[in-house]
Hints:
- The chain is about 25% helix and about 25% strand.
- The chain has helices at about 5-20, 90-105, 175-185, 205-230, 245-250, 300-310, and strands at about 25-30, 30-35, 40, 50, 60-65, 70-80, 115-120, 125-135, 140-155, 160-170, 190, 315, 325.
- The protein has a seven-stranded antiparallel sheet, sandwiched between helices. Strands 1-2-3-11 form a four-stranded antiparallel sheet, with no helix packed on it.
Amino acid sequence: MTFRAKALIGLLVIVAVAGASPVFASLDGNRYTNDAHRIELSRPDATWELRERLPIPSVVAGFVVGDGTAAAALMHYVIPANEVLTDATDLARRRNAIAATIACAVTGQPGPFEFERTEFSGTDDRITFDLFFSNRETGRGALENWVQGFIVRDDDDRQHIYAVRCAVTRGTFQSWASQFERIVPTLHYTGAVATPTYTSRPIPIWWWFAGGVVLLVGYGLLRSRRSGADEVRIVRPVARSTAASSPQEDLAPVDFAGSAPDPGEDVPDILRATSGGPSGGYGEEDLTSDRPARRSSTVTPEVAETAAPEVAIGYWTCRCGRKNSEADTFCVRCNTDRS
């Protein structure tokens, strides 16, 4: 195949593709329609020439008279998700910032702008605005601007700004006002509108991260508590010391074969008392002695405490050092007769 044949085939393909591509924008008489942006706008007459592919990103198209003495630009701007208007209070609080955003988008410059008037009003399906401001552009000098448009929300939950900017050289606005008033009211949105216009901002990603961390920490604490409640605790028995004995071990076993110790031996001498007669308490009889049965008595500490002051002078001292009651004729310790 020759080079000429290949070139012809390539040209036919380009023509076919171009013919199959949909036409998004068109000018029918004085009515301009752009289906891609779902917008329509009319010009006063054919003296206003259509200009497309302008260097300003947000400007879809524009009408220019002569060498650009006056111009009307059609703008479409999508508000970022983190800057959407959430309610009327949010609009009132941010109206100056929204006005500056619209001016930047429609002029393609960051400013500065000298606002003379900023008006906003809202209905169920849109927020309308009317802005008058001055700015300065390189090559054109000082300009006067009238920007009018509206904010709508579409089916994708996005807020769109549509506006027409009418601009002329400063000091000549009044001579063009009648022409501008024939252009601005023709702005029309052809897409679907969702109500209300206000919408909510998406939750920042760092909020999702913080919420995930909180959930993980809470889940970990919950699991640790459950595992602690379900854990079977094994208590190790405490080994008893051989040096310390229990109360039961401190009690000596009863020796029924031998004789029990005399309980009176543990009572101090000053608390002992003996007496005869039926009312006294007597000790055991000495069965191994040939003497008549002798009996001694001990009194309880309580009785001794009350009786001691009265009988303190009625004692005698044995050679072994034992103090015996005056009534005893022998020593209750060594069994020696009183001398």
